[in-house]
Structure formats: C-alpha cells, structure tokens
Amino acid sequence: MKIVSIVGKKNTGKTSLTVKVISELTKRGYNVASIKHSHHSIEMDKENTDTWKHKEAGSNLVVGVGSTTFFNVKAEYDLNRILYLLKHFDDFDFVIIEGYKSYNYPKIITSPEVRDEYTIKEVNSFTIDDEGVSELADLIEKRGHDIVDTLFANNCGFNNGESIAKEIREGNLKVEDLDNVHSYLSIDNKVVGLNRFVSDYLKQNILGIISTLNLDDYGVEDINKIEVVIPDTKATPKINKKTTVLINDKKLMINSFTSDIITNSINAMVNSIKTEDNVKNIDIEISNITGKNLTDAEIILKTNDKPVDINKFTSGILKETIFAVINTLKIDDEINNIKIKVGSD
C-alpha cells in the first residue's frame, strides 16, 4: 500500500487535483482508497434519517449498509490508525490523502507556503493537463510508501522508518527493495513496526495454529487474509530464561533477539496449557518429522522435568506452531527432530 498526501492552502485546487490523481491511478488498474481531512465538522449523514437518529440517541459508531456501506464515528481518529484499518477492508494499492499536512507522508503541494521536507512535487492544480497528471501518477508510483513505522530495509543499511521513507521520497530507494513484511500489528491503536523476521515469525505461528482447525466448518476454503483481535490484554513481564534449540541433535546458534522471541513464545504456549503455576524450565522434543508432514511426528513436553499429558488437539497445535517457528530461522537441512529447552538463567 503506497500513501501520498495532497496538501495546500485553501482554494488552491486540492480536491480537483486529488480527483484527477485518483482517476488516473484507477485507469491504470490500481485499487485506490482516499481520505479527506477537514478542520471543520464533516457530517456524512442527513438529519432525521434512521442512521442520524441512531447517532443522536448516543451510538458512538453507526454503520449504514445498503448498496454501499458507510461508517459514522463520533471520535476523530489518528491518521495512522485510519491507514491501519484500511488494511482490514481491502488490499489497496494506493491511498490518496487530501490534507493532513502535518504528517510525515510524501506530499504533493498546491501552494508553496506548505512546502516542507516531505514535499515531492509542487503542482498548479488549475493549469495541470492530462500529461501532467500522468507524470504525477508516475511519481506517486515511485515515491509513495506504506505506513512509516512498517518500513524496514535491513539489507539496505537502514533501521528506522523515517530514514527509509526519506530515501524513498528522494528517489534513492525503491519500495521493491524493502523487506517483504507479511504481518501488521497494532497495539492500543498504535501501529507497531515488525521487521521481516518478526513478521514471518508471527505469521508462521498463527498459520501453525490455524492449520489444526477444521476450517471447512466455518466455510473457509482458501486463506487470503487473517485478522486477529485480542482485547483486554495485560502486558506480561519479560521472561529472563535461557533457550537452547537443537535441530537433528545439533545446537542451533541464535542471537539474543531470536532467543527472546522463542523463549516468550514457548513460555506463552505452555502457560496456555496451564500445566502448573511456577514453571522454571520447559523441555520440548518433536521427533519423526517427515518433510513438512507432522501427522506422524511425536511430541514430548516436560515442565520442571515432569512429563505433561496433552491431548491430540493440543499436541497438534504445539507441533505445527513450533515447526513453523523453526522454519522462520531458514534452516537449510531437512528437519527430522527438534529439541527446545527453556530454563532459568
């Protein structure tokens, strides 16, 4: 999803330029979303309609569904929150924003007074012709980028979204060169950036769990997008435990960051089984793995050196999830058995 904003002083043709850009991108076959920001109150509904009455009665969110669907929310949402929510609606190629000049997205300006470091082009909205709009769309294709905090390009020497966004705006870095992030995370309405490893790790964990479910019962055939909402969640303290991973009885060298992720994941999985209150160490062994087929694989779980009896369903979740986790580490050899030990330092 590439984001660009069109900003300028009042009566400088922002809306007309926004419409032209949306039209051009749509003609090119792109799926386009747009956002309009106003300093004045915007009311999409009409007085005395049924949905208007819902809102007047006190509903904080009203959804009207007919030939189209609209959402009427009393609260003013942060732009990044809106952009994140758009990912739930559809796979948009572009989001064209009219306004929001204080945000850090590539800007096309219609008046010189609003020029800043995020400006990629100044345009006279009243004189621009079709060729100019086409060239502008070309620029948007090259310089637009996703939500800033979701940008990662570790292989390019950058380690934060702001630096990466700047390089894209200046034409020094292509979006295609960024890490391919497969998962997006929001905590308490704030977008949290995930690099490729964490993104893949989260994705594979969830896919591992989902693979144990009978999705046919819910009418799910092909998985295209997974959405997870976890409400009323309290943060857990960081776990100070050492993790050792053996693949085919050979110790796997992992850095502290990867170790922390595996430690917390294994600890969370075991805690969900509620084996005992004070788990000091965890031992997991998965054997008889054939390729990616875990049907005949066996799993042994111990906590505090005591075997834990787990049913077939839980066994399946643990096997699939742990195998998915290990696969994010890009192991070259075929995996036949996995041993993981999590213990206090």
Automatic annotation (TrEMBL):
Pfam families: MobB. Signal peptide: none annotated. GO terms for molecular function: GTP binding. Residues 3-110 form the Molybdopterin-guanine dinucleotide biosynthesis protein B (MobB) domain. One of its GO terms (biological process) is Mo-molybdopterin cofactor biosynthetic process. NCBIfam families: mobB. This is Molybdopterin-guanine dinucleotide biosynthesis protein B. It comes from Methanobrevibacter millerae.
